Structures are given as C-alpha cells and as structure tokens.
Structures
1.
Amino acid sequence: MDHKVPRSCLPTGIALLHNPQLNKGTAFTGAERDALGLHGLLPPRTCTLADQVSRVMENFQRKSSDLERYIQLIALQDRNETLFYRVVVDNPELTLPILYTPTVGEACQKYGHIYRQSRGMFISCEDRGRIARVLANWPTRNVRVIVVTDGERILGLGDLGANGMGIPIGKLTLYTACGGVDPDVCLPVTIDVGTENASLLQDRLYLGLPRQRVRGDEYHALLDEFITAANMLFPGVLIQFEDFATANAFRLLEEYRDRVLCFNDDIQGTGAVALAGLLTAARVQGNRLRDHRVLFFGAGEAAVGIGRMVIMEMQEQGLSADEAEQRCWFMDSQGLITRSRQDLPPHKRQLARDCLPIKLLPDAIGELKPTAIVGVSGQSGAFSQEAIAALARHNERPVIFALSNPTSKSECTAEQAYGWTGGRCIFAAGSPFPPVAVGEKTLHTGQGNNAYIFPGMGLGVLVSRAKCVTDRMFTAAARTLSSLVSDADLAAGRIYPKFDRIRDVSARIAVAVAEIAFEGRLTDLDRPDDLSAAIQEAMYEPRYRSYV
Ligand code: NAD
C-alpha cells in the first residue's frame, strides 16, 4: 500500500471520485472498487493512466480553440490532479502554451465568463485586519510556495484586477509540472484591491471588487499584513511576486528580499532567462558576454531585471562594474535614458548613461552599435525593418530578442527578424513562434520563457531550505540553462533547450541553486552527499498510488 492518506481516512464512493487529489477515475482497479464502494459509479472497464492520457489528448486536439483547451485542462485539474499533471508532464510543448502564456492571458481577460470553480485564495482590501484568519481557512498548513499577484499588470495586458488569478494558478502548475514541486504545498493567491479597468468595472460577470484600486499607505499596509500573516501561518514559505505594476514590484522586492524568502519573477526570473539566451548567443558567435553591447528597448521590470543580471555576469567575466554598465543602454518611450533626463523614476535612474539624447531606435542603433537588442516594451512592431537593418549592418550575427508578451505585443515576429537579416540573426521571443524556413533550413525560434527558470529555482530553494533568494542563484541558474543547450539545438536555431527536457533542466537548475545556498551558508541544513539524487528524490511524479 502506498498512499499519503491513511486508509481509515480515505473517502469512499462518490466522495472519493469528487476528491481531485485522490481520484483515479476509470483507473480504479477491481480490488479498489470492491474496497472503496465504487462499483456502479464508474464504467466497468479499468483503464491505465496511459489510456486516460490518450483520451484527454484526443479531446484536447479536437477542441476548436485554445481557450477551450484551457477550460478542458483546468476542469481536469479540478477533477483528477494526477491525470492532469501526467498529461502536462508528458505533453509540455502542447499544454504549457495553453496553461501559461499566451493562452492564460485570454483566460484571465475572460475569467469571470469562464469561471467554474474556485482555486487558490482571494484576499481583498476588505480583509484588512483579519488576513491571518482568512489564510487559516486554507485546508492545510503545509504550504511551502505562494505565488501572489494583485492583478495590476497581467502579462502585457494591463490591469485585470481579480481576473489575474489565472497567473498564480498557471505559475504554480508549472512549479509542479516542470519543477516537480508537490502540488499539495502550493498556494495561488490574488490580492484584490480593486481595478482601474473600466470594461471590467462595467462587466456584470466580473468577480472582483467593483471599485477603484486602493493605493498608497492603505495598499502597503494590506500587503505587509499579508506577507506577515503568510509567514506566521506557513513559516519559511517562499513567496513569488508576480505581475505587480512596476513601482509596486520594485518596492515589494526591495522591502522584503532581505526579510522573508521571496523573489520577483518578472524582474529576477526574466533576468535569468534572458541572460541564459545571451550567454548562448555569445557561444554561437564564439565570444563571451563581456564582448557584447546590449541595447534594451523598454526600461521597466523586465529591462531592469535583465540589465542587472547581464551586468553581474559581465563582472563575473572580468569587467569592472563601470565597464559592464557602459555596455548596456536602455530606451523608453522618450528615447535613450540619459543622465541629462529630469524626472526619471527611481528604477530608471540606475539605467541612465552619459550618451546623446537619441529619440528613435534606428538612430540609437546607428550611434551605439549594439550587438544585441532586447525588446521589453510591450510595443508591437517596435523593431522595424529599418531598426533591424541598422543592427544587421554592423553585426555578422545580430542578436534580436523580442520578449514582449503576448504574441500580439512582440516587437517583431520571428519571420520578420530572420527575413530582414537574411537569416543571420539569433532570435528569441517571449511567446512561441512557429518555425521559419530560411533557404534550405528550418529555424526553430527560441522562447525566452520564464518557466525555464522559476520551477527549478523554487525546487532548489525548497530542497536546500534556503533562507533567502539571491541574485547569484539566478545567474547560476542562467549559466546552467545555457550549458544545457546542445549543439543539435544550436544547429536548429534554438538557443534554449527543447521544452520536452524541462524536468531535467529544472532538476539541474535546482542543483545549481541549492549549491549556492549550501556554499553561502544560507541554510541550516547540511549538504546531502549526493545533492543531485536528493533533488531527484524530492520531485513529485504524477502516478497513481495503490489504495488497497
Ligand atoms: P513594465 O511596464 O515594467 O515596462 C515596460 C517598459 O516599456 C517601460 O519602461 C516603458 O517606459 C517602456 N515603454 C513603453 N512604451 C514604450 C515605447 N513606445 N518605446 C520604448 N519603450 C516603451 O513591463 P515589464 O514587466 O518590463 O514587461 C515588458 C514586456 O516584457 C511585457 O510585454 C512582458 O510581457 C514582457 N516580458 C517578457 C518576459 C519573457 O519573455 N520571459 C518576461 C517578463 C516580461
């Protein structure tokens, strides 16, 4: 017998079939049906888990839209968690673009219209003063990871208020599917402080508080109460901040990173995944990151996160802080961020350089001669033919990362990037693009998906019981990810490993992260002799347990 719930506590009959953690559906064996009062409640034939996966995927393929596929998969998650994770783990390239970007964006926009069943926890500004009591309603105390959003900046889609819940749910699904973090220890949270999205406020089916956002001291006090209560109820829980608007994202990270176990995926996770792509691009060119000059188009959370990691890594490669900074420039809607600009918000001041106040991207490329451009502006089409041609003029292998999500916001398409550079560019995007034919070759575009980093980061932090998450953990994760890109990947145009290797990628990132925790004495645990085996052993594997 092999199950977490003692036999005496196991529900029977219909209650067992309605328990998603324990349900096996048609896979209950004859002996289990005898013992657990299931006869007559299921069709007679017993299926294997593999049969069930085939049935789900047949239905998945038949659906008429990606949103329908999303609804199908979430309904399965609500019904049979083991089967759900088996489907995702066995079919990551098909299911993850549905459960996460890009389809999750549409699911969030329509959350109130496709809602079927609650998942995770909602904390609203009306819970001020009683958040610990609200969190105590969660059925277990064994929570080790929380992903939390306030819904103000969902992907590149803006303020979606309480509809943002799809994001913490999706991210935690990836923790389990990609990183092997046990679903039982994951808690998605949405902090509902209202929304400024006029169409949601007018929507009768919107499920959040129909009010303008709470801001200022009241907002900060609410978030502080939440973080304190979460640590009281779930001591040492890892909190991942997700899709907060720029100023709040920076403030929360700076305020809490040294006090509680937390990180911000939009800043640090993005930084690591893009750094990995740039390290691989340097490998393709036979040089090093320190030889590159990077022009960022956009100067928000993603740009700051990537910029910091790139500068850290260039220093690791021997440059001084000043030399490294002089190799990274940033643009926003007003043009290059220069020291002469007045009224820059705090996060942009660190990005200011002594350079000419150039307004347009092609001119900035002509003047600064970057080797790489990184689009993190949310501005569809911002990488024009003129800009890309300017980059291609002085680079044999120009590096073009159009990272804005969803696909409709991408600074350029894969086809444009390859087409306008005669197939010479090294390209990555934030969302998946179909392969592009260039002459005789078919090039597979890289997707700088944060899912390459955060599940492994979380697993490494949880297994090592690290007390804080450091930037060095993220640069180590980036180096590991880049090292896993094979020569065959590179030959096919990929600068990230194929996604079907994600469990192995996450396990190796977890090892690298845990090593930093043990080396830096950021944990009270002793390093296991075989860290890699300890990580593997900790990974959740979706398979049915025997109940008899
Ligand atoms: P943000 O709102 O913090 O920053 C956006 C930045 O773009 C701001 O600095 C803004 O000034 C700048 N900007 C706006 N209009 C511009 C214009 N016309 N020209 C130049 N700059 C302009 O958002 P963020 O979190 O930094 O995310 C930015 C984009 O990156 C989003 O589309 C997001 O989906 C994407 N992103 C992708 C990944 C990934 O691929 N792994 C990860 C994180 C974010």
2.
Amino acid sequence: MIKLEVKIEEKSNSYPIFIDCNLSNLKSEIFDFINGKNCIFVISEKIYNLYGKILDLKKETVFILKDGENQKNFKNYKKIIDFCLNKKLTRDDFIIAIGGGVVGDIAGFVASTYMRGLNFIQVPTTLLACVDSSVGGKTAINSPFGKNLIGSFYQPNAVFIYTDFLKTLDIRNFKSGLGEVVKYAFIEKSCCFEEDFNLINFLETNNKKIIEKDTYTLSELIKICILLKISVVQKDEKESGLRRILNFGHTYGHAIEKITKYKKYTHGECVIEGIYFAFDLALKNNLIDKNYMFFMQDILKKFDFKKVQKFKLDKIMPIMKMDKKASSDFVRFILPTDYSTVKEFRVNDLLTIF
Ligand code: GLY
C-alpha cells in the first residue's frame, strides 16, 4: 500500500491518502480509521450495484445516489442532510463518499455544512476522482445558474483509493480521467514539486500499460498526479494564485461542456480539447514553438481521445467570460510556455495576450 500525506498550512492537522489495489481491504481499513465512530456511506448507485456484496455495508447506513452530474442538486443535498439527522450523526462522526466526482462533491459539501462540519472520507472510484476531485478539498453542488456554484473548500480526513474499482470503469470514463492526467503532465514543472517525475515521458513510455489498466502502472500514475496536486494545493488551498494552473485546458473545456449541456462529451474529452486550444493560443502568441506543439499532439494521439466538434469563437468567448475566474474584458488562460511549464495570461477577444 502507498501512503501519501497532505499538509494544509491553515490547518494544524494533515491527512493521509492511501493507494491500495485490493478492494476486499476497504471495509476493515476504513473501520480501523474511524475507530468506533458512527458513519454513513454516500455511494454511487452503479458502484453499489457492482460492489455492494463485496463491500458488505450495513444497509441502514447507506445512502445510494443515482449517477449523473444532475444529481448534484439541492434536493439530494437536503435528502443526505436529513439522512444524517435521522442517524443522529454528531460532529465526531463520519460521512464516507464512495463514487466518482459527483458523489465526492455533494457528500463533501454535506460534510462541510452539517453541524458546521463533520468528518469526511473520500473513496474515489473513477480515475477522474482519484487524480483530481477527491484530493484538494473542493466540494460543491450545482444550481440552475451553473455548475459548482454552491460549495466550500473542505479537506477530507482521509482518502482511500482502490485501483480495483477502475477495472469496471468503462473505457470512455477511464479516458476522461486520462484527460486530467495529461493535464498534469503539461503543468508538472509549474507544480513546484521537489522531485522530477517527467510525467510526459511516463505517459509516452507506459501508454499501452495505462490503457490496459495494469495495476502497478495505474498506482504509480495516480501517485504522481496526486503528489503534483498536493504540491499545488498545499501552497494555495483557496485558489488565489498557483492553484489556478490546475485549470490548464479547463477554460475552453468548461465552455464546451456548458454549451453541450454536460451531455455530449466527457469532462476529460473537453479538457483535452482545451489543451489543444491552449497550445494554439500559445503558438499564436509566440510563447512556444511548433516543435512543442507537434510533441504534444504525438503524445495525445497515443491515447486516442474522442474528438470534440469545433465551435465558433463568438459562441465560446461569452461563455468563457462567465467563468468564475474571468472578467468582462478578458479571460484568464493558463498557457504553455516551455516543456511541462505553464503560466497564467490575460487574453482579449482577439485571442491576444496582454
Ligand atoms: N480541479 C481543480 C482543482 O481542484 O483546483
């Protein structure tokens, strides 16, 4: 088992992230961790149907959440709060989220608000949640006005990752997670981690093993991504500066997700399209040369991501300007400037940096 540690400066305590492959250890490892406290599980319906028997959790402690981004809503938030109240959970008790980003986000938001905050454990079951949403403390639900508009920064007490869960993840959703993995590769040096993983090289060398979901390779890959994310989040938990580099590929990617109503493409497919867009923008503004652009294209080709349709700029620009991180005059973009290196730039309507 791999154990990583997150230390957030503002909080005196740190929390562990465990990476294990053996799902049959889940129950005992979590119960050891919560040490006799009460708990409830918020679990994705798909995961419950696939793994309910192996997990063997007491039915009365389980809240099953249907799958899909639209489940991250007020109605389910209230239902989970009521479930906690009915179980008489106190601040010393635990909410345990088992599922992808939707489950982690809503359960985390409940955990951060129920009695002003109770203990919270993340058990991510998708690659996307393993390498991104389960680490770093962003929690949220959606509003009719937009995605993740109601939320908080609330760090979990622990994250337990079991690569076994990824075996049943369908290839499209697996590749959606790889979209975030590729993002880390192109921002690695800017994450300021003391060790040089050369994740770009790791992806190039191990692309076949990754697609085949080789257990050891996946554990290593997840570990590298998490260490990079931890390095960023530890320096800027509330996203006032450095953490914005994690949005590489997301400014354009989020706009596509929104324009297609979060239905047509996966998050990762949109992030990959956003990475292409960011490279185009960087080339146009002489931040990088063509060789780096071709190099990026070669690596992305190896993973055969689904292509996303092109949208006219006048359709996309107003949406990018509505992004939480934008302003009415410009859009903030994270752009490549060198190998594995990115920087933040302001970009105007003519796609020129200033
Ligand atoms: N998903 C980007 C972040 O956690 O900041």
